[in-house]
Each structure stands twice: as C-alpha cells, then as structure tokens.
Design a protein that fits this description.
Blueprint (H helix, E strand, L loop, with lengths): L2 H46 L10 E6 L3 E8 L3 E7 L1 H13 L4 E6 L5 H12 L3 E6 L11 H4 L5 E5 L9 E5 L2 H17 L21 E5 L5 H6 L2 E6 L2 H14 L8
C-alpha cells in the first residue's frame, strides 16, 4: 500500500470515529432531554393538581390538615417525585371541582361563608348551569353567610331547610343524572310556553348530547374560610353511581319543588 492510499484510509477511519462520537453525544443529549421533560411533567402535574373530570371516573380525597408544603415519595426505578400538599393547593382543587359543573350544581351545605366559592357559583349560573342550594335555616342569613348575596341572582335557587331537625349536611352534586333530566324537562316546558319560538323559521338543530359523568363531593368541610384555612377537614370525591344516586335521593327529599316540571 502506498502512502497516498494509507492517508485516505486513515482519513476515512478518523471521519468514521468522529461521526460515531457525534452520534453518540447527540443520542445521549436527546435521551437526557426526554428524561428531564418527563420528570418536569410529573412534577408539574403533581404540584398543580389540575382537575380534569370530563367523562372520567373520579375517586379522590381532599384532606385539609397540618400544612406540609412539600413531601417526597419513592416511585419505581428509584425516582423521587415531589408532591405539593398545602391548604392553598387543596382550596384550588376544591374550587376546580366545583367549576367543572357543565349542566347542574346541587348544594346541600350547613354553612356557606367563602366569598371565593360564592363567586364561582355565580359564574356557573351565568354560564347557564342550573344551581340549587339547600342551607340550614338558622345559619342561612347569619353573617358572614353568602346566601343573601346568592339569592340576588335569579338563576340561583336557594331554599332553607323546612324541617325541624338540624340540616348538617355538607355535600354537593355536580351534573347529577336526575338533576340534568329535570333541567331538560324545565327547558322543554319553557320552550313550549314560548309562543314566538314556534313560528321562527330555520330552527337551529340541537347539538348532540354529550356524555357527562356526574359526581358528588361530601365530607366534614363546610364551605367556609375558617374550615379551609384553620380546621382539620376531609372531602371525598367520587363518581360511583350507587353513591351518587343515594345523594341525589337525599337532596330531592330536602328540596321543595317549585317549578312546573313535566
């Protein structure tokens, strides 16, 4: 082999070695970048507690206990995941569940003093969510109760407990099947009474009915700032059909029907 051919061979070998090293480093870089992205995603999801309830089964517990800003748990592959736990996060999570209502919100609460929750209820009503609230008669208009403020809005129906025993429930039903059926009946009745709508041409075709999974939140928590900030409280959130049906039945036993349905 002459010197010229040897130089070509050496140059080719060097080029192959350099190229292999470049590929190796590029693979390592993208692999580490992917792992970092996945880790960041897990951490962000764990700490943001973004609630997504659309058509998904829900089984959750919200605990208001001693503040513990952050704790680390072990997961497979020896990875540490940081979970945020604070009263602020839990309040945010509770309100996210309430805000997820798309058709109806039935509330049975001994006490409502939280201005933040009251504002969310008003916003739901403004979005045509049908809101019904049952509260204890003794606590309904005792300051700092938000009931008087809520009764100022025609799209929010409030009733005080008519029974002699204490109404000490703390639960709400979001998009309950019976409540949605009732809302549909009310809407159909209103449209039947609307004589002008019967003569409107080119009726807009009704949109396809979307599947909505209802759920219930129940526990020791009153919707009060005191409870969320200072007390030890717990809230169970579930879309279990049997449990949901029982809570809807209980709500209907307390709600005195006023609107003509049928």
């Amino acid at each position: 082999m002459d010197w010229k051919n040897a130089r070509v061979l050496l140059a080719s070998t060097a080029a192959v070695v350099v190229a292999s090293q470049v590929v190796k480093h590029l693979c390592k870089y993208f692999y580490n970048l992917r792992r970092k992205t996945e880790t960041d995603t897990v951490s962000d999801d764990a700490c943001s507690d973004v609630v997504c309830t659309k058509n998904k089964e829900i089984n959750d517990v919200i605990l208001f206990s001693d503040d513990s800003l952050r704790r680390t748990i072990k997961v497979p592959a020896n990875k540490d995941v940081s979970i945020c736990e604070s009263r602020e996060i839990n309040c945010f999570k509770l309100i996210k569940y309430i805000k997820s209502a798309r058709e109806t919100l039935d509330v049975c609460m001994y006490l409502i003093t939280s201005t933040e929750i009251a504002e969310q209820i008003i916003r739901l009503g403004q979005k045509h969510v049908l809101v019904r609230i049952v509260v204890d008669s003794d606590m309904a208009f005792t300051p700092p109760s938000q009931i008087k403020k809520l009764t100022e809005y025609s799209f929010i129906k409030v009733q005080t407990n008519k029974k002699t025993i204490l109404m000490h429930h703390k639960f709400c039903i979001i998009d309950g099947p019976k409540a949605i059926k009732r809302k549909s009946a009310l809407k159909a009745y209103a449209e039947k009474l609307n004589v002008h709508a019967q003569f409107v041409k080119n009726h807009i075709k009704p949109s396809k009915t979307k599947l909505i999974r209802g759920f219930v939140m129940s526990g020791s928590l009153n919707w009060s700032t005191q409870a969320m900030v200072s007390n030890h409280e717990s809230v169970i959130v579930t879309s279990n059909t049997n449990i949901l049906n029982k809570f809807e039945k209980e709500f209907e036993s307390l709600w005195v029907e006023e609107e003509p349905v049928g």
